[in-house]
Amino acid sequence: MRIVFAMLVLAGFCSCASAGQVTSVYTDLVPEKDCLTYAQAGENDGDWADLSCSGYLGYPVLLSYGDARESVFFGFPPEDMTSTWESFAGFNSSGSKVEWRVETTGNVSIPFAAIHRRSVNTSGEDAAKQVDVLVVAKVAQIEGREGCTVGLVLATGNAGANDDARKIADEKARDFVCGKDKRIAIGEVPPFGRVDN
């Protein structure tokens, strides 16, 4: 009986250990300091730019700017970047910190989700009218290169916004199918869209 009990305890321990430990790691996202511009508008070509930014453990952050709106992609992008543009309809700007949700098993750490604060203008006429939203993104791995927004959490007036965002990241990001699965929204978040081919 003791042998059977010991085997069950050991099996339980092994399954827990193999699941990996999930933690948060924080990196900066300050374009002037952390990014390089690799494409931008020419004269009489509007106002847009594409930047490559340092991320976490070699996982890049791609920041695209156009018409006072920003799209942020975390991880290794696909060859065709058309479907990676996701942003709010209103003017918006990125926060200066990224929270990466990282799963560590043994000596291997893999960031599977990123949480990023965005300030969104809710009135085109009044720049002072804005809310903060936490954008939860699936981090694109080098094999599948699939990354996208999994959830949106209204942070303004929501004391539990960070916990809500982490819960979405931990429970949904890994298996989320970009362009097919429906994003999760908590609170009255401003309109948000994705460009698909």
Defining key terms:
single chain, disordered N terminus, 12 strands, 17% helix, 197 residues, 3 helices, four-stranded antiparallel β-sheet, alpha+beta, six-stranded mixed β-sheet, globular
Topology:
Elements: H1 2-19, E1 21-28, H2 31-34, E2 35-40, E3 48-56, E4 59-66, E5 69-74, E6 86-88, E7 92-105, E8 108-121, E9 130-138, E10 148-154, H3 161-172, E11 184-186, E12 192-194
Parallel strand pairs: 10-11
Antiparallel strand pairs: 1-7, 2-3, 3-4, 4-5, 6-12, 7-8, 8-9, 9-10
Question: How would you summarize this macromolecular structure in one to three sentences?
Answer:
This protein is an alpha+beta fold and 197 residues long.
What does this structure look like?
The protein has 197 residues and is an alpha+beta fold. The chain has three helices and twelve strands, in the order αβαβββββββββαββ. The protein has helices spanning 2-19, 31-34, 161-172; strands spanning 21-28, 35-40, 48-56, 59-66, 69-74, 86-88, 92-105, 108-121, 130-138, 148-154, 184-186, 192-194. The strands form three sheets. It has a six-stranded mixed beta sheet with strand order 1-7-8-9-10-11, covered by helices on one side. Residues 1-17 have low confidence and may be disordered.
